[in-house]
Amino acid sequence: MPIPRRSIVHMATSNPRFEAISRIATAKHELGRIDFRTTHLKELFGANVFNEEEQKARLPKPVFKALQKTIKQGVPLDPTVADAVASAMKDWALEHGATHYTHLFQPLTGLTAEKHDSFLTPTGTGKAIAQFSGKELIQGEPDASSFPSGGIRATFEARGYTAWDPTSPAYVRESPNGSTLVIPTAFVSWTGEALDKKTPLLRSMEALSTQAIRILRLFGHNDVQKVFATVGPEQEYFLIDKHFVYARPDLIHCGRTLFGAKPPKGQEMEDQYFGTIPERVLACMADVEAELFKLGVPVKTRHNEVAPSQYEIAPIFEDCNLATDHNQLAMDVMRRTAEKYGLVCLLHEKPFAGINGSGKHNNWSMSTDTGDNLLNPGDTPHDNAQFLVFCVAVIRAVARYPELLRVSVASAGNDHRLGANEAPPAIISIFLGDQLQDIMEQIEAGALKSTKQGGFMEVGVSVLPKFPKDAGDRNRTSPFAFTGNKFEFRAVGSFFSIGGPNVVLNTIAAESIDYIATHLEAAVKSGKTLAQAIADLLPGILKESKKVIFNGDGYSAEWHAAAEKRGLPNLKNTIDAIPAIIEKKSFDLFAKYKVFSDRELNSRYNIYSENYAKTINIEAQTMLVMARSMILPAAMRFQAEYAASLSALKAAGVDAGVQLNGLKSLALQIEKLHGAIAELDHAINHAGNGDAYSHAKYMRDAVLPKMETLRIIGDHLEMIIPDDIWPLPTYREMLFIK
Ligand code: ADP
Ligand code: MG
């Protein structure tokens, strides 16, 4: 049937941008979904978690005790206990409306993965019962052949299995039409090699604990059984109306805009940071928080961030493993919840060029199972000495392994932040603050002395001051800052699993603590007092490590020059950073602490290279689609209109004058657009052969520059094409229409 002419005309003139705006203007959102007068916060917290309290109430006493020993001290779980735990867990989950269970794991895509199994088991008599065995709890075997393994598995040995991590409690995730019992797991190959982010994290925590306890024993803390890395990740994100996102292929497929001219108003007024939160956004945030409370995630703060439509959520810190799981969960809940409010949560590191991107400040410290923060300057000279030892260990660790910290935060997305004109720089350095820096300088100069009584040393004063907590404002440019009682690693990207960066932090810290413990133990054994041994050891370490300490402006050109003189690496992008994974230094380190085998490191090197190449390829393909099917047709329509208008002028006998130049310049832009499209197309179709890394390198060197050229032309056209023809929601609309 022929299409009536009217509808053809309508299709040709309807503009997806206008449509989006008018839908947003008339949308009614259901904002009041939770009433905190009837739903009390403290009852909400952990309501969907099979936590210690539930375990205690539901498990036979010996089973409960055995499970707690596994959770708190890492004692292997007795398999006979597993059946009892599984059965109690299942009953609890069914009461919470669960129909299925899943082993949740964290493959190297950086996301989480899951496969659901029903609790239902047919009895063979036409009926069925709900069943869940210890075996099903402990181990799962997803068909995981499609997850990246970086060469660890050939397809014929593609099996991987998931292993229950009892230290991260199971929970029920609610969804319409039945909830799911979620069991956090590690994901390993049949040969026991790590295919995920959790396995090495657990190994690195073990290494850190073992080494830190040696120092604690020297200080006489014989009660401590375990030391945990503690982490509090501050998560930045954007919320954009879904109608805008649906009209932009780049946001849908890449999570960032590949075109988009600068808005007349950006973030220069600084009227957004800590500003009043828009009502719909606040409703969404409160909903996210309520969901996370139910899941036992201790979210604490929320506020507007620097860029328009950018926000932050931060939890109270937890042990590193739990913090990592909870951050993954938080990102998941944020994305799901945003949809309920007609919003899309963008977690990409740089969704919009020209305004701030998003990061994740990874606050990191170490804590004993008796509750002491090892990076908290204490109240006595004895505590101070211990603090100084751990603090110097971290400084040494960062000074020795800056490349590993850098590569732990490297991705195509984060390349737009690190090394670009934005916080923080790609050069890894440590900010200590004036006071602590001064103390470290004194120690280096030999000011650390043991006291006459043979007790612990002093540094000019007998008790160290409490260091001010740097709220981040005093030196936002430092990638690694001491903030009172913890270090804040600020280079992590918003979309990252914090697993990777913390594996590196834990392992390099373990190595330095090991080094210090070995020297102190030997000195004490040879008859020195501990105080003297410390006073003898620390100055040399600081001398060798101080090159990494920098309190100034990390953006400045002077710093870049100075850092080079100091011999600090400046790995500007992912391709520069990735080779650090397979350097001898890295193999040695991770093998020594049993965190990664050589094969596991090689596999990661391949996977991160592949990820980079794939990301750039998807972006380039998306750009081509947009340029050809959206920007070019809009430009041609304008050109036709323009030309028709000039012909009419000419027919009327009017001289077109300057207007003719306008048309000529438009035609030239369109020519350039054609050219840039052809060049990008050529570049992505001639990637050549080679290993994953050389492919990735090709994408950086040959494809990215073509994308940049195409973008400049596209953005220029956006500024001259008539508003009613331009199809893509603009920055000024996406960021400011709420
Ligand atoms: P800000 O950085 O805005 O000053 P805070 O210093 O209060 O805020 O905390 C930022 C994050 O650091 C929070 O998630 C907090 O729980 C976390 N944090 C605080 N103490 C520690 C610690 N000892 N170990 C790890 N994270 C911590
Ligand atoms: Mg902070």
Write a compact overview of the structure shown.
The chain is an alpha+beta fold.
| Shape estimate | globular
Indicate the low-confidence ranges by residue numbers: 1-12
Estimate what percentage of residues fall within beta strands.
Answer: 5-15%
Instruction: Report the total helices.
Output: 24
* N-to-C CA distance: 42 Å
Structural notes for this entry:
This protein has about 750 residues and is of the alpha+beta class. The chain is about 50% helix and about 10% strand. It is built from 24 helices and 17 strands. Strands 9, 10, 11, 12, 13, 14, 15, 16 and 17 form a 9-stranded mixed β-sheet that branches. A hairpin with a 5-residue loop joins strand 3 and strand 4 (about 130). The longest helix is centred in the C-terminal third of the chain and has 54 residues, at about 600-650. The protein is globular. Adenosine-5'-diphosphate (ADP) binds near residues 231, 232, 314, 364 and 472. Magnesium ion binds near residues 234, 361, 472 and 488.
